[in-house]
Amino acid sequence: MKTTIGQVHKFVGEQVTIGAWIANKRSSGKIAFLQLRDGSGFIQGVVVKAEVEEAIFETAKGLTQETSVYVTGTVQEDTRSSFGYELHVTNIEVIHASVDFPITPKEHGTEFLMDNRHLWLRSRRQHAVMKIRNEIIRATYEFFNENGFTKIDPPILTGSAPEGTTELFATKYFDEDAYLSQSGQLYMEAAAMALGKVFSFGPTFRAEKSKTRRHLIEFWMIEPEMAFVEFDENLEVQEQYVSHVVQSVLKNCTLELERLGRDTSKLEQIQAPFPRISYDDAITFLKEKGFDDIEWGDDFGAPHETAIAEAYDKPVFITHYPTGLKPFYMQPHPERDDVVLCADLIAPEGYGEIIGGSERIHDMELLEQRMKEHDLPHEAYKWYLELRQYGSVPHSGFGLGLERTVAWISGVEHVRESIPFPRLLNRLYP
Q1: pLDDT single digits (tens) 112-154
Q2: What is the CA radius of gyration of the chain?
Q3: Which of 61, 244, 250, 270 has the greatest number of CB atoms lying within 10 Å of its CB?
């Protein structure tokens, strides 16, 4: 019976064959322990000299790291292993012998590992992070599908900047200027006017020259937009979504979280509702904490966000930022013209902002005014204005950065480990 490591629990006491790679190996004169991986998981293969042909034992002793093999053996329960099973090997067929695999069990520098990212992905740690990433994606589709959202794919090539910034990658689109998308939001607003509740999941690009552990040049965003949904309802959807994702990872990635040494007690507390603090109160809080350099109207940096997050056990919403700090499309506060109906969701443990969202302007005249204030070309945004011309309604949305969320939930320090092939300021390889 041919199977995978992830399915061996179905075949206890039976003989199976698994296609695998040798992650590691140790042997003595009478027994060899093979650490096998096949993508679905890791299992130990035990080869006892007295129980197999001499040639098979010699093959086992000679196996090198990352050699590919077909291994046949009997599945047995193993209470000493966190995985719970091991394979008592009866036969080994070498598919391809690996020689001088560059990433060994010893310590390697970050730059070396990044240069060999295509091979580093094979390690137990990176395997665990990618499995958690996959579970977050699965749980995302589950949440939005179960709550009546329709998946929509916005374009990656656009003719204008969704947030009116200059941090864009420009290219030629035949005889026109085009840009790699930094957000699908404006297109998702159009989709929400057609389908009510929509979400996108796709790559975005920011030409931001930042080297911090929180930044990538290319990253993935989940961007829901909802018609007839106002500010407070928007926050409720966000906290329900994040809670669902975290609890799904806790339920379905127990081994991976353990492999990463993640303190799951902190994740177990992530249940809606989440605390909220206004920008005004956040400024007061930061000054009381000794941040004398921060003034009303200043944006928050990583130290400020971390200080605020440390006051809570859950993600915290910072609400009602000054109008001047936020993009042109955000709805003003009904009682104040100096702040907008927006919120950033700050993850615990120093991982920073994972969601930015707001109620969107639905009044055409006000949106035109904001566009003039931001010096945005009317013709490029004509279609966006028309969303307010033909049956405009209050609507809201948000964007969650997948990689920061993966980093936070898995507990890795840098977002470069939370995406298969990171694009950083000085890295376009591999």
Answers
A1: 999 999 999 999 999 999 999 999 999 999 999 999 999 999 9
A2: 26
A3: 270
CATH 2.40.50.140 is held by the domain 2-96: yes
In one-letter notation, the amino acid at residue 423 is: R
Residue type for position 267: L
In this structure, which CATH number among 3.30.1330.90, 3.30.930.10, 2.60.40.10, 1.10.150.20 belongs to the domain 117-417? 3.30.930.10
Q: How much of the chain, in percent, has pLDDT values that exceed 90?
A: 94
pLDDT tops 80 at residue 166: no
Tokens of 399: 């964007």
Rama region for 328: left / alpha / beta (φ>0; ψ in -120 to 50; rest): alpha
Domain ranges of the chain: 2-96, 117-417
Is pTM, for the whole model, over 0.90? Answer: yes
Q: What is the distance between the alpha carbons of residues 30 and 34, in angstroms, rounded to a whole number?
A: 13
Give CA–CA dist 202/221, Å, rounded. 6
Q: What is the mean pLDDT of residues 353-369?
A: 98
Residue 196, Cα to own-chain centre: how many angstroms?
26
- Three-state SS string across the chain, please? CEECHHHHHHHECCEEEEEEEEEEEEECCCEEEEEEECCCCEEEEEEEHHHCCHHHHHHHHHCCCCCEEEEEEEEEECCCCCCCEEEEEEEEEEEECCCCCCCCCCCCCHHHHHHCHHHHCCCHHHHHHHHHHHHHHHHHHHHHHHCCCEECCCCCEECCCCCCCCCCCEEEECCEEEEECCCCHHHHHHHHHHHCEEEEEEEEECCCCCCCCCCCCEEEEEEEEEECCCHHHHHHHHHHHHHHHHHHHHHHCHHHHHHCCCCHHHHHCCCCCCCEEEHHHHHHHHHHCCCCCCCCCCCCCHHHHHHHHCCCCCCEEEECCEHHHCCCCECEECCEEEEECEEEEEECCCCEEEEEEEEECCCHHHHHHHHHHCCCCCCCCHHHHHHHHCCCCCEEEEEEEHHHHHHHHHCCCCHHHCCCCCCECCECCC
